[in-house]
Amino acid sequence: MKALIGKKIGMTMIYKEGVAVPVTVVKAGPCVVVQKKTVENDGYNAIQIGFEDVKEKHVNKPMQGHFKKAGVKPTRYLKEVRVDNVDEYEIGQVLDVSIFEEGEMVDVSGRTKGKGYQGTVKRWNFGGHDKTHGTKYPRHGSTGMHTYPGKVLKGTKMAGHMGNVNRTILNLEVVKVDKDNSLLVLKGALPGAKNSIVYVRSAVRGGK
Amino acid sequence: MDQLIRAVEMPYKKEWPKLAIGDHVKVLTAVIEGGKEREQLFEGYVIAMSGSAGGRTFTVRKISHNGIGVEKIFPFSCPTVKDIKVVGHGKVRRAKLYYIRNLKGKKARIKEKRETKK
User: Which residue of A46, A96, A182, A183 has the smallest Cβ count within 10 Å?
Assistant: First the structure.
């Protein structure tokens, strides 16, 4: 699987054959291969990639050793990517946006914006109730039945904390690859705020 | 950060005459119909501008046949916008001329700004 760690830059629109396309700009990579995991050693095949260089003093001792072993500069973010064949990669190899092509489908994971404690209208798209005309409790309606089941079923939609969870958006089209600025231009919106870390991988389901 | 977004928008940027609210403009757009491309002219007043940078748009309002008001929103960077011509500048005091939607006939006109002679 092809994958990169990146930063969400923001949204804009570009034109394709006279039609406006809403796009998100992601500064993806360059990512460095820090570790290789093999079936013999670890039970599965994967590479560990790092993104965004940091000073060595900002990395704790165990991690310093980890980077030193690989002989690469310490990075702020690390992520494991499952691959079929580890031999295609070398430790210290730099992966950039050119691993993706225009027109390709990708999945993007990120942490959504935290919304705090939200009511059912915003959190679950409930209709809401009259605020006046004699209503006593203008909140959500019933949360369950009667003596049977005699409890509120698990997973019932109620008010609570919203956002600040990991989400993956499947099958986003790569509209453009800008190698000079190491940018990926993806069609549609991504989870998270500007400058938040996103993980871009080739589409695992469907896609082109 | 913004510069990176600008880098993506750059290829679509176009140079147009500076528009102001209340301007009388002629906008030439390409229309693709049945595989054929033809040009269409839309003439009216600029009643609003919104957005920023690559997403900036302007709204043109004209009075069509039988006094029906027609508005079109054009993105500045849209490739189908072929030409923007400023015919005259309007004398207006607002950034958004939405009030003009409620006016009819002679009242729905915008007074033209006379150029001061030097």
Answer: A96
Residue of A10, A14, A25 with shortest CB distance to B12? A14
pLDDT of residue B1: 62
Please check whether residue A25 touches B, CB under 8 A: yes
- Residues of A with Cβ-Cβ distance to B54 under 8 angstroms: 12-14
Q: Give chain A's largest Cα–Cα span.
A: 71
- Whether residue B47 is predicted with pLDDT greater than 90 in this model: the reply is yes
ipTM, 2 dp: 0.76
- pLDDT of A208 reads 54
d(CA A35, CA A72): 10
- The pLDDT assigned to B117 comes to 64
Q: How far apart are CA B30 and CA B10, in angstroms?
A: 21
A157 interface with B at CB cutoff 8 Å: no
Paired tokens of A208? 């082109």
Mean local confidence (pLDDT), B10-18: 84
Are residues A15 and B54, on separate chains, in Cβ contact within 8 Å? no
Test B54 with A13 for CB contact under 8 angstroms. Answer: yes
CB count within 10 Å of CB A90 equals 11
Cβ atoms of B112 and B90 closer than 8 Å? yes
Q: Does B10 touch chain A (CB under 8 A)?
A: no
Task: Report how far apart the first and last C-alpha atoms of chain B are (Å, whole number).
Answer: 45
